[in-house]
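In this supplementary section we document a worked example of the pipeline. Step one takes a protein sequence of length 506 as its only input; no multiple sequence alignment statistics are reported here. Step two produces a three-dimensional model, which step three serialises into structure tokens for compact storage. The input and output of this example are shown verbatim.
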Amino acid sequence: MRALLSVSDKTGIVEFAKELIELGYEIISTGGTWRVLKDAGLEVTEISEITNFPECFNGRVKTLNPYIHGGILFRRDKVDHFQEAKKLGIEPIDIVCVNLYPFKETIQRTENFEEIIENIDIGGPTMVRSAAKNFESVIIVTDPNDYNKVIDALKNDKNSLEFRRDLMIKAFEHTASYDATIANYMNKRFNDSFGDKQFIVGKKVFNTRYGENPHQRGALYEFEDFYANLNVLKGEASFNNLTDINACMKIAVSLGKGSVVIVKHGNPCGAALKDDLITSWQKALECDPVSAFGGVVTVNGVVTKELAEEINKIFVEVLVAATITEEAKEVFANKKRIKLFDLGKSKLEISGDLFDFKHIEGGFVYQDADIIKEEEVLEAKQVSKAAIEDKKDLMMAWKIAALTKSNCVVYVKDGAMVAVGMGMTSRVDAAKCALKKAEELGIDVSGSAMASEAFFPFRDSVDAAAEAGVKAIIEPGGSIRDDEVIQAADEHGIALYFTGVRHFLH
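The serialised model returned by step three reads:
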């Protein structure tokens, strides 16, 4: 029995080789792996002794040889294959353990194109694919985390077809992801990220109970290892929980440490950034306590026992925080339906993806991620006669509006969202709907700052804001009726700012 070991990531390879040798396997290896095993005192055959041909071209060619690929690929269940292998002097290779040159790590570390090219693995993926194709007879190992599993299978009669099939699938996932990373990088470098093909690769984190509805299946996939930092403290996240958590965390991170955001069905129904988290929670809840019932709450900070007791006064389905203390978890211990997650940090973080995509029937649309910058408010153009010095509420309103479904209008007063209208087909309807709900809840919006993520096509939204006592408005501008909107602001003494940047979210 023979095993071919050729790995870039040397984690656990010496121990794995020792176990294989004890089981009677002859070890064949290449380059750096051969040296590591040899230095560990193991008996190992250098690959050129098998190929009868030296590694050449600075290691570019070493395993691309019939004695290697023939030994991996010939079918053990076919007599003519056995006879041909014997005639050609090709001996079987029963285990292939390969992981690939660190291409992703290289492009993260350097822009040196020559070095990047040299870290594109050729022989490795070829061996992986060969072994995976012949999985009925060959074990293919691409992940150091599987070494113990393979040894256990060999020792305890678990080396079944199903076992090898699972490793085969993992191997093809490995090479597909590797090639996708290379193709995407080359398109980014030479085609501004928009080549003829776009590859989106994710690693499964867990299955959800179901999808958006019970008759649909669902799962969470991650691009890197971001969700590995999400600690599941209580409960199981559903498909809908995850999309709500995403919306909630993006707003909370945008607003900064100390903020509390409440989301229901992907839209914010409460947000505040006050001097302490308990006050932030109370002010966020005031915006729409009815919608907050059963919602997702994100706390950009540490949930203490005292804050947990305040939150626990209503039913919250999901609580996500930078950290939830042990004492705070005890507060929720008897709540069966609540789900608790934290990142084990002092403040919330998001991965900050630079791209975005959405499924449409028959394909997907792909774009640069929409990044909201504080400069958009700080450098916004004053187009009205009136002005304001303190733009904190404008900043907060602008960030929330930019991260909320269009058409959207947001009202913020003293660091808390006091009204929001979102997902409307008419912008004036969004403005009026928000004000109507605030009035029903007895919330005074006078003196608030208002933000719209896109321009006002008519002056009617400004007139409605003036009637409610809004002191300042921020919007992109760009309407053919901007002059009418500016005139309305001047008539009402409202400070009006244009950012020049639109933030549609559909």
